[in-house]
Write a structure and sequence with these properties.
It is a single chain. The protein has an 8-stranded antiparallel sheet. Strands 2, 3, 4, 8, 9 and 10 form a 6-stranded parallel sheet that branches. It has 2 domains: 157 residues, no CATH class; 274 residues, Alpha-Beta Barrel (TIM Barrel). Helix content is 23%, strand content 19%. It is an alpha/beta fold. Bound molecules: zinc ion. The site of zinc ion has 5 residues, from strand 2.
Length: 442
């Protein structure tokens, strides 16, 4: 029997870490599903974090190429405004163009839960790269991002696993092919923005290197977050419209943005009828706009919509590698998990699907929503089932989140691969220790 399983696993690796069986799974979430469950004392692995209905990522390209203060910082500043705490962004770095100030800011941004991803060493077309170019733009660029960002961070608290490295690729010009995807997979990446335009993917998307996306571009003066570009044909779907479609499909998609300049509402376009010359889209106007720009105020309108959808438990925001890892870990487990009382505490056990293998690079914390049957004030989690072991590595990074007013229903974050039998101890009224953010000296 063991031999058969090994063979299946081997096949699974060759098609990007999944088997056909792993593609069969049912959406499970909080609203419209678990909130109305009648029985008590249960545990369910949810399709998206904290039982959200759908999932979304925002990536901002060309970090390094565009002005940090005029085009990058306004988006970063916006993410720090009150109410936007759960909106974490990804930035695509053009490695060769980065200066020391950019690198140092990137370290701080990652320590706040944003992710730096690889946008190549030079901003060139990946389908034209030879072997030497591939190594330079993919592997060498990654080494540099790791050296200047990830290796400096010992722990980014609840945000990323210790030892995280750069592991996601966003292609310059969104130009890619099968062999560039394969090169990334071979190089240890977990995924890439290399799929279809503006089509929401089902949560069990098969290929993590073919993640769907839509690039944003403003070409009309009466822009709203619901409008698509009227005159520039490659933007297919409005900012907020994409969110509605994600929730409707219970799926996932990436939004691609570029510079986010802080240009006043009446100054991002001008009398020039050619939208490519507007300050929002043209670096030569000196206001921080570049190809596909979006002002800070315009992005804020989108953020307000995201905030509403997060609060109503309809949407989870992930950074790029997080979404892929979450999905690939979840699909290896049955939805129904087992919650058993153990003294005054509980043991949670996730049921692994025997025929689904998960490559180490995809193993991550996922959400399990539990109904404890009784209300508790707080919860903590011990992987080794010893409630006295308060070592920070003995608990998940992400703190249990209360889902209802009574304190009976919680969303537990757990990496089920941390224990051999996919179990952990939930400690009644246990004090949460968590991990501190630790950065080596810049
Ligand atoms: Zn770019």
């Amino acid at each position: 029997m063991k031999k058969v399983l090994l063979i299946i696993c081997f096949v699974a690796f060759n098609i990007a870490g999944h088997t056909q069986n792993s593609l069969i799974f049912n959406w499970r979430g909080y609203n419209g599903d678990l909130i109305n469950r009648n029985d008590s004392v249960w545990a369910v692995v949810t399709t998206w974090r904290d039982g959200a209905i759908g999932a979304y990522s925002i990536v901002l390209d060309d970090f390094g190429v565009i002005s940090f203060n005029k085009s990058v910082k306004p988006a970063w500043d916006l993410s720090k405004e009150a109410g936007f705490e759960k909106i974490k962004l990804s930035w695509g770095i053009v490695t060769k163009q980065m200066n020391d100030e950019n690198w140092n800011n990137a370290v701080i941004m990652v320590s706040q839960g944003h992710e730096m991803v690889n946008h190549a060493m030079t901003h060139t077309d990946a389908t034209l790269w030879n072997e030497k170019d591939l190594k330079y733009n993919i592997n060498d660029a990654n080494d540099l991002i790791n050296k200047r960002v990830y290796e400096i961070i010992h722990s980014s608290g609840e945000y990323f696993a210790k030892g995280k490295r750069c592991e996601f690729f966003v292609y310059p010009y969104d130009s890619f092919n099968k062999s560039t995807h394969e090169y990334l997979n071979k190089s240890g990446f977990v995924g890439a923005r290399g799929g279809e335009r503006a089509i929401v993917m089902k949560a069990n998307f098969p290929d993590p290197f073919r993640i769907n996306f839509d690039a944003h571009y403003i070409s009309n003066r009466d822009w709203t977050p619901d409008s698509k570009s009227k005159r520039w044909p490659n933007m297919h779907i409005g900012l907020n419209e994409a969110i509605d479609k994600i929730i409707e499909a219970k799926g996932y998609m990436i939004r691609e943005l570029h510079s986010v300049p802080d240009i006043p509402d009446n100054a991002w376009f001008d009398e020039d009828n050619n939208y490519e010359n507007w300050p929002i889209n043209n670096a030569n106007k000196g206001m921080g706009g570049t190809w596909g720009g979006l002002t800070k105020n315009q992005l804020r309108v989108h953020f307000e919509y995201l905030k509403k959808k997060i609060e109503s438990k309809e949407l989870a925001i992930y950074t790029l590698s997080e979404a892929v890892k979450y999905s690939f870990t979840v699909r290896a487990f049955e939805n129904e998990a087992v919650l058993t009382a153990s003294g005054q505490n509980w043991i949670i056990k996730l049921n692994k699907k025997p025929d689904v293998c998960v490559e180490d690079k995809y193993k991550e914390e996922i959400s399990v929503i539990v109904d404890l049957g009784v209300a508790v004030e707080q919860l903590s989690v011990a992987y080794d089932r010893n409630h006295l072991n308060t070592n920070e590595d003995n608990s998940p990074r992400i703190k249990p989140r209360r889902m209802d007013d009574s304190g009976r229903i919680w969303s537990i974050s757990i990496n089920p691969f941390k224990s051999a039998d996919h179990t952990a101890l939930l400690i009644r009224d246990g004090k949460w220790f968590g991990q501190d953010i630790k950065i080596n000296n810049l």
